[in-house]
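Proteins fold. Shown next:

***
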Amino acid sequence: MLIFSVLSNRFAPGVRRYAIPVFIFAGVIGVIIPPVGAVALLIGGAILWFFRDPSRQPSGPGIVAPAEGRITVIREEGEQIRIGIFLNVTDVHVARAPIDGEVTQCTHREGAHRPAFMKDSTRNERVDIAVTTSDGPAEISLIAGAVARRIHPYIDNGMSIDRAQRIGHIDFGSRVDVVLPPGYTADDLLITDGQKVRAGESIVARKTINN
């Protein structure tokens, strides 16, 4: 069952805010109208599933995916490459650091709440995290979607981050981008458009020997 399948997972912050009221409602209404209580119980289990936060380890050297989802953006921006990952509602929504470094700026920006898979989602509410790495500057962006209304960064200015470390969570549907440090080229990418990746585990880029 869904509820039992999430018991072995840790959960992202915010799970109590959504899950506890639903389970309380399920317990109360279940005495009066059992079918409604059963539905509410399933909804509570689905919320637990959404906020799950399983352990992840990088599958090898290189830059790891900052989020679990599907690759929807691979774009050159000057001397750097942007990789965008769309998170479906069924994906794990805990974001992870793609590379070791130091956070130089963590900025929250208000914006729209368009579907995260749309091109205009770049104008959505977001948190941009500038990181200094041994290979140069990088950036991670946590972008809210149409349903997502809360972005929870776990880090702040001046903090050191380790590759695959948890760095934030977005409630209900979102997108996470990473702008690779300068020096990474298309030849270093290990992913393709539409590919499914796992946060903190899948390797999205690795410098070739020639670099």
